[in-house]
Amino acid sequence: MILPKAAKLTPDQLQEVTAIVTEFGCRIHPIVGALRTIYAILGDERDELMINRLEGLPYIERIDRIQSPFKLMDSRSDLATHRIRIGGVTLGEELLVIAGHCTIDPKHPEYFYETAHAVKEAGARVLRGGVWKPRTNPYAFQGDDKSLDILMEASRRTGLPVDTEVMDECQLKLALDAGVHMLQVGARNALNYSLLRQIGAAVAGRATIVLLKRSLHMGTLNEFISAAEYIANFGNPNIILCPRGTAPALDGYRNHPDESIVPLLREHTWAPVVVDPSHAVGKASYVPAAALAAIAYGADGLCLEAHVQPSKGIGDDPKQAVTPDVLAAIIHRARAIWDLNHAETGGR
Ligand code: PEP
Ligand code: MN
To answer: By alpha-carbon position, which residue is closest to atom 3 of ligand 1?
Structure first.
């Protein structure tokens, strides 16, 4: 829908606008109001270049799009009935909890194996464990290929599917070859369109699920859902959105907790939403409240850092990981909130 600055377009302006939309296979239909005429674009109005050209015209106030820019991830797309299933859970039908170490310590695999059994016992259905880590400080531990074997061994021992972050094509290949069930796109890479495309292409035709974190710098819903669209575009729509806090941080927290984005995502996309409260608040003692808030907001699940002995952990684990007891209590309460929500709304 084209809104001119003046009450209506002059004949020359209308001709220019018509010429532009015709180039993209669309037509103009004027809608004459009492005070103002607006111009509907008939046809597929999703082409960015057409919109940019129209928005660049000095006599145009704005363009309101009726069609969503997301062909696949939009809540009205044909994929809206698509369901994602992992660890025996169908997203949207039962709470999904992903839990485990921030970082697997290759020198101490025993902690990861213990944690894997403990999170399973606590009710987690997917095991997380960082093999390669995006670290702010270049001298901090960056991860180790050896941890991939530990991750897969923990999966075999517990029967849990596993989630790990990949940051480049080489890690992507190693993870897929090893049989990783869920690939995490970290907050730092959620705006890395080359990586999103590589992951989309690599998971096409596979059952692999992608857990797409929200970037620290993603302001708009559009940016978050578009990142998912990049991946889905290659053919695999198994994408879960994961808000994990944004910048600037709320004083005292690691980031600005953003679980309140859940109802907005629900409205605009069919993709399930699993919130990561661990990175949002950044301190184990704040995690339970943030986790329960996310479920109250309607999240489909939680991704939590958990460790049998957080003080022996590496990466974020010493400050952020909850113990298995706390994890069990979070899951118990989260299920109660989930049941209340779903009893009242009849589900999603
Ligand atoms: C993580 O999950 O350990 C992690 C690094 O997350 P994020 O990308 O959200 O910071
Ligand atoms: Mn972490």
So the answer is: 102
Q: Are strands 27-32 and 274-275 parallel, antiparallel or unpaired?
A: unpaired
Q: Model confidence over 106-157: pLDDT tens digits? A: 999 999 999 999 999 999 999 999 999 999 999 999 999 999 999 999 999 9
Q: Round to whole Å and give the CA distance between 205 and 174.
A: 17
Average pLDDT of the chain is 96
Instruction: Please give, one letter per residue, the 3-state secondary structure of 123-159.
Output: CCCEEECCCECCCCCCCCCCECCHHHHHHHHHHHHHC
- Of 288, 278, 273, the residue nearest 242 (C-alpha): 273
The pTM score is 0.93
φ, ψ for residue 165, nearest 5 deg: -85, 140
CA–centroid distance, residue 228 to ligand 2 (Å): 21
Residue (of 168, 230, 244) closest to 193 by Cα position: 230
Other CB atoms within 10 A of residue 344 CB = 7
**DSSP-assigned beta bridge partners for residue 165:** 184
Number of Cβ within 10 Å of residue 226's Cβ equals 17
Ligand 1 pocket test, candidate residues 98, 141, 165, most atoms within 8 A of CB? 165
Q: Is the pLDDT of residue 101 over 70?
A: yes
* C-alpha distance from residue 130 to each of 44, 70, 283, 322 (Å): 42, 31, 18, 16
> Where do runs of H (alpha helix) occur along the chain?
11-23, 48-55, 109-122, 146-158, 169-178, 193-203, 221-232, 262-268, 277-281, 287-296, 317-320, 324-345
Q: Whose CA is nearest to atom 9 of ligand 1?
A: 187
Other beta carbons within 10 angstroms of residue 134's beta carbon come to 13
Distance CA 244, CA 152 (A): 25
- In a 3-state reduction of DSSP, which class is residue 107? coil
pLDDT in tens, 148-191: 999 999 999 999 999 999 999 999 999 999 999 999 999 999 99
Least distant ligand from the CA of 316: 2
